[in-house]
Specification:
- The structure is a single chain.
- It is globular, with a radius of gyration of 20 Å.
- The protein is mainly alpha-helical.
- The longest helix has about 35 residues.
- The termini are far apart.
- Helices cover about 85% and strands about 0% of the residues.
Length: about 150
């Protein structure tokens, strides 16, 4: 391998490592900013352990509507943990964000798979977050988990 090729490969590895470190640090910063902006007492009151299925349903919709990529969504989730939200509510939020993200569906899935696919997938996908949140609520009540 020539010196020039080795130098280029080395710079790519260093660039990837720096990008990974900056990305990880920016997620922590984003989480801190979102946590500082959220009114923690209100979040705890509305989405705390006693919010029940109403909190799960609200958060399932919120998870579907959160714009941006995973860095933003998980920063919101981390801020919710700092605000003492209930475990079932947080699991419902993350599930809705991962399964039913409208930003991803409208930008990527419609372009690649078309509206007919989306008309069938979205009504089936959204209740999954409700089932996950409801199951966690039931387990929390039955076994003290959550």
């Amino acid at each position: 391998m020539s010196t020039r090729v080795a130098s280029t490969a080395h710079s790519r590895v260093v660039s990837a490592a720096v990008t990974a470190v900056v990305s990880a640090a920016s997620k922590d910063v984003m989480s801190g900013v979102v946590a500082a902006l959220l009114p923690q007492d209100m979040v705890h009151q509305v989405f705390g352990a006693g919010s029940g299925m109403a909190g799960v349903a609200l958060v399932a919709m919120a998870g579907a509507l959160v714009p941006g990529g995973p860095a933003v969504a998980f920063a919101v989730g981390a801020a919710a943990v700092k605000a003492r939200t209930g475990g079932p509510v947080l699991r419902s939020f993350v599930s809705a964000r991962c399964i039913f993200s409208l930003t991803r569906s409208l930008t990527h899935e419609t372009a690649m798979l078309g509206w007919p696919f989306l008309r069938h997938r979205l009504p089936v996908s959204w209740p999954v977050a409700l089932v996950i949140g409801g199951s966690c609520l039931a387990l929390d009540g039955a076994f003290g988990l959550g």
